[in-house]
């Protein structure tokens, strides 16, 4: 059993530890570590990703080859009439008469130029259709792959969130978990696209274009390299600010999601309390914080982009000036023999346009790399938030080799149990000793905040006690499988949760294998059958969201029926009759006593009529069971805590009745 100090450290540290981790500067090593953690999700799709890379390579080849070959063929061959190279003639299926013989001043005939033009148009059309189909198919295929990767991470995150203890969910906002699972998880695919696939493609294209343009003249390549110096400086200065505001933007958007979730969850209370204006003001404040953080993030990314664009524009002007001057003077290209494969032995119109296209491509890819870097900083923060949820270890862990759950439950006991949500605060439960045997109903009674529901939570292993043990047939439940334990415990909560499904589906929510007859029997025990069959479609009646079409008492009876249908040896009812009238309450409790003859039943309640039906009553005060016995036994204790509780309740009811008659 872990110590209070260990529990407290994890409980209190959930939010602060994340804050500390996110506030740390992210190094290149950290980026690679996060990308490495993404690998298992990518590896599951490695065949598809390999094929996608192949498609990307083919499309890249077309992007580079078409301008180099097409511009020279059309501008120098069709427009000027210069003979083409042997490579170009074979590519277009033309005879050797179109190939240059090396004689100065030779030109193609008008007929040859028209034929060359027609071949260029045909090939250009075919290649355009092929490229368009390749792009559309590749984009759809990429989206499909990314959706599968994202789905895998979301499922793992949801599974981890489900297995985290209630201590984490109590200390965290529901909307934050929603934002992480829905929004932050999407960064795994965007990170791959923005920080792996797209930069890789851009760098390869950049290097290829740099080699080609250097073949035209090394001075052009030098201009490109010099341009990278001010760009690198802008990266160095603005990256920390981008990361800082990215952290704030995601945190404030998470807060906004939580606020929206809270508003719609409590919309009835908000309306009945006429608190719309107050709630709206809070929403406006959270929304403004999120918008402000997003603005500051985008503003700094925009500064980076503008600074890079200015540097690229200056480089473009210098390169255009040099290339135009060389074209006018018809200077020879630096590697004329190599570049001559596409006809660029000297600077002419085709060489100028081809080199200009490559220089534009270099600068465009540099700008794209800047965009990837800026957006990537935000994505890394989101990915870190997603993995933070996965890094949390559940406090209640499954044992490696669990014992077999007892075939028949004889008794349930708490032995010297102590528990606190936070070791720095007072204990919620202290030195709890209680035994409940099969065929009995145990009522857990006490004022609000005495630890009644927490006591039942320990039986479900929603928490583990700091000290002591909870046992079933003298077997510590920590030695049992959590799945098997919860499979054998049914619970009906005061805050009943119903779903937008039929009544039958709601009752069978946790036991979908049950037949309609079994559903009707459970509804009969819970005194719900009669009102169900009076509805227009009976058990097939669709309920509104959260069962809004039903009264509070009807919803409570459906919640009890759901627990009964599971047919477990242990049943926990938390305020099961709080919304029932006296007659219905009596019937439900009578049915539960008959149904629970071979089961252990716990009632967490305040209602005296419910308490009196119990075989034993555990009265709790300040986290202790201060009195234990039947109703008659506890009422016989002079100055007893339970007796004071009952008398106070009775006086309160009497005063209410008198005031009502007055």
UniProtKB/TrEMBL annotation:
Record's subcellular location: Cell membrane
One annotated GO molecular function: ATP hydrolysis activity
SMART domains: AAA
Top-level lineage group: Bacteria
ABC transmembrane type-1 domain boundaries: 50-319
Keywords attached to this entry: ATP-binding, Cell membrane, Membrane, Nucleotide-binding, Transmembrane, Transmembrane helix, Transport
Transmembrane stretches, start-end: 49-69, 121-147, 188-213, 219-242, 301-322, 334-355
Residue ranges constituting the ABC transporter domain according to the UniProt record: 407-647
Name the UniProt record assigns to this protein: ABC transporter ATP-binding protein
GO cellular component: plasma membrane
Source species: OM182 bacterium
Bilayer topology: Multi-pass membrane protein
InterPro entries: AAA+_ATPase, ABC1_TM_dom, ABC1_TM_sf, ABC_transporter-like_ATP-bd, ABC_transporter-like_CS, P-loop_NTPase, Type_1_exporter
Species classification: Bacteria, Pseudomonadati, Pseudomonadota, Gammaproteobacteria, OMG group
Coiled coil: none
Listed Pfam families: ABC_membrane, ABC_tran
Keyword ATP-binding: yes
